[in-house]
Amino acid sequence: MSAPKVGIFGLTGCAGDQLQILNCEDELLRIAERVEIVDWVMARSQNDSNTPLDVAFVEGVVATERDLAYLKSIRARSRTLVALGTCAVWGGLPAMRNELPREVLRREVYAGGAEFLDTREARPATDFVPFEFRLPGCPIERHEFLRLLNAILCGGKPEFLNVPVCWECKTRENLCRVVHYKEVCCGAMTRAGCGARCPSHGVPCAGCRGPVEEPNYDANITMFQDRGISWVEIARKMEAFSAPVWMKLGLEREHARERARGGRS
After folding, report:
1. In this predicted model, what pLDDT tens digit does every residue of 68-85 receive, in sequence order?
2. Phi-psi category of residue 207: left, alpha or beta, with phi > 0 → left and psi -120 to 50 → alpha
3. What is the pTM of this model?
């Protein structure tokens, strides 16, 4: 029986998630024994761009018409498609300023002469085609990638923590950045999996892994307000990595509510 054929691809982004896969030094040889990587520009000089794929991983956002066409071609040739990283899943940093018109961005960045760009509003890859799995992270966590890959190869579904970063923070016995330091920390709203890395080093969570499923918004708003922290401050910080999904959730209404209550902006 032939090994499953795998492709790893990047749209507009920093390629940090692909680099994390390459950083799995101790496991790469075992991965190579189980799969056949046929298309990965970052790691191979000779690639097959036509062969059907059993599994494809895609990182980055759709920010150009070329990105969109490329994504659709990957979807068409893949049995299982995985969104890799926060950009692909939630929009990431490239999507944080979509309120600015494309022509303004072209003018400010290139100062003219940018007609060659086929730019479009930056959106997560998950907005355009169906994905079987989504693995957030900025960048992804190597142990989560390995668990996901192993589950796919075994025909199963990976189990990941469905709790906020606060849960991991408590298990590491960190002092809460909100309660004890009155800092704008997004741990209560952000999905776990990073081991509360930032709070463990004295840095508030910036929400880079995207929102946890079914967060208790009302309780969190109350907690922030009791410590003199505006909900707008939290929302704006979360929007740095997951602006499109916050708009989908209708949290712009919470912005308006907070401003009406006289919250700081």
Report:
1. 999 999 999 999 999 999
2. left
3. 0.88
